[in-house]
């Protein structure tokens, strides 16, 4: 069988059909950093898991959205930039 694929079609491989590989690696590294960081200061397993998931879930949800294959780091940057200066996007939309 031969398939006709348009030239403007972008094929991106994804892990589990949700994450592209750089985002998946970013998520794993971020989770491990949180795990080791909170492991130094918190010795109760319940509190340790609670703090790790409280800080990890927002990054994970941003990674799932993955709008236009944008890196989660840049998505967080754009969100913080909008929070600091919201009128910038109201006057100069892109």
Task: List the keywords.
94 residues; mainly alpha; 4 helices; 64% helix
Can you describe this structure?
By secondary structure, the protein is mostly helical. The chain has one domain (14-91). It is built from four helices and two strands. A two-stranded antiparallel sheet has the order 1-2. Helix 1 runs antiparallel to helix 2 (45-65). It is flat.
Can you describe this structure in just a few lines?
The protein is mostly helical and 94 residues long. The protein has helices spanning 21-41, 45-65, 72-84, 87-91; strands spanning 14-15, 19-20.
Q: Major sheet: order of its strands?
A: 1-2
Number of DSSP-assigned strands: 2
Q: What's the main sheet like?
A: 2 strands, antiparallel
Percentage of residues in DSSP E strands: under 5%
Shape: flat
What is the N-to-C order of secondary-structure elements (H for helix, E for strand)? Answer: EEHHHH
Rounded Rg: 18 Å
Weakly predicted, low-confidence segments: none
**Residues in helices, as a percent range:** 55-70%
How many angstroms separate the termini?
42 Å
Task: Report the total helices.
Answer: 4
Mean pLDDT: 76
Overall SS class: mainly alpha
Taken together, the total number of domains comes to: 1
């Amino acid at each position: 069988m031969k398939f006709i694929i348009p030239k403007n079609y972008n094929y991106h491989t994804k892990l589990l059909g949700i994450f592209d590989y750089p985002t998946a690696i970013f998520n794993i590294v971020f989770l491990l950093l949180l795990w080791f960081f909170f492991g130094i200061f918190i010795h109760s397993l319940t509190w340790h898991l609670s703090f790790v998931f409280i800080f990890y879930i927002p990054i994970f949800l941003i990674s799932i959205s993955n709008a236009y294959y944008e890196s989660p780091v840049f998505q967080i940057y754009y969100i913080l930039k909008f929070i600091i200066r919201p009128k910038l996007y109201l006057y100069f939309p892109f």
